[in-house]
Amino acid sequence: MDDPIPPDLPAPPEAERCYRHGDEETLVHCTRCGRPICPRCMIPAPVGHHCPECVAEASREFRKGAGRRMAVRGFSVTKAILAITVAAFVLEVATGGAGSLMTGPGSSKLVDLGAAFPPLIANGQWWRLLSPALLHFGIFHIAINMYALYLFGPQVERDFGKLPLVVIYLISDLAGNVAQYAFGPVFAVAAGASGAIFGLLGAFLAYNYRRRHTALGRSNVQWVWQILILNAILSFSLSGIGYLAHLGGFVAGAALGVAFDVGQVRRREVRWVGVIAIVALSAVLVMWRTPMVNAAVQRFLSTGALP
Fold first, then answer.
1. Which one has a higher pLDDT value, 196 or 102?
2. How many domains in the chain?
3. Catalytic sites, residue numbers
4. Residue ranges making up the domain that contains 39
5. Model-level pTM greater than 0.85?
6. H/E/C letters for each residue in 88-157?
């Protein structure tokens, strides 16, 4: 015997109209945004159907995220920077002589090649706030920096993309050299890619700190802190380490790591505010420091005494 039909069955759902085709009635909704869609707008998804706009948005996110990381397997900006820096070191050794392989070609030759020297920067050679990244004090200096680039460059390139990697590298290099110029000795020669490298380290830390709820994020954050503690110990234990450049590059890289985090910052113009702010602050520090450097040079020319 058939069961009787319950008298309190719910009324059938009312049909809605597709948000893209108002003349089409439908009972189906996009499982991503919830809007009603007709058969012409239904795009199969792992669960249910998606509307064309959600599919387009997902495609854009893929190109910015996983798709971009897959593209890194091709041309590598990190390897290009590494190759350019090594080529510059070969030229440096070639012009400085065989003895320059271990300790560099000497301060005067490094200055001729483009090392940072505050009196020349104060005299208008602003390009020396970028060029020191191509010069190093010997093979051990470049080996340490290029090994760090080999470790962190691909990570930053994968997480942020090729152009952001170049921007982070160059702006961190600028910020590191500006910090050394603004707060370091007047007559010291500075060279090396350490500021740029620490910028990549800062960006890597910023990216993973915002993902510290994951096991990989926590592990990477701990790794970076260990490197920073070791560097701090070495900076205060050994002479000749440009900790100001390290600090300036690291702070700039961390700020840009926040600004260029695609998963957190959606509006493209907002991401470049960090770049503009760092460049502007660098310009202010250079203008503030330059009269002091010029005054120190004049005192040296008058008295022969170093500050």
1. 196
2. 2
3. 194, 246
4. 16-64
5. no
6. HHHHHHHHHCCCHHHHCCCHHHHHHHCCECHHHHHCCCHHHHCHHHHCCCCHHHHHHHHHHHHHHHHHHH
